[in-house]
Amino acid sequence: MSKIIVLVGSPRKGGNTEMLAKAFADGAGQHHDVELVSVADCRIHPCLGCNRCYSGEGHQCVQQDDMTAIYRKFMEADTVVIASPVYFYGVSAQLKALIDRLHTPLRNKFRIKRLGLILVGAAALPDLFDPILLQYRMILRFFRLEDIGTVLVSGSKEKGDVLQGDGISRAYELGSSLANAERKEISIRRLSADEIPAALDLAWRTFSEYESPDYAPEGTEEFRKCLQDEAYLSGIEYFGAFDGEKLVGEIGIRPDRMHICFFFVDGRYHRRGIGTQLFRFLRGVYPDRTITLNSSPYGLPFYQALGFIPTETEKSINGIRFTPMKYSGGDDKQ
Ligand SMILES: Cc1cc2nc3c(=O)[nH]c(=O)nc-3n(C[C@H](O)[C@H](O)[C@H](O)COP(=O)(O)O)c2cc1C
Question: Which overall architecture, per CATH, does domain 186-327 show?
Answer without folding.
Answer: 3-Layer(aba) Sandwich (3.40)
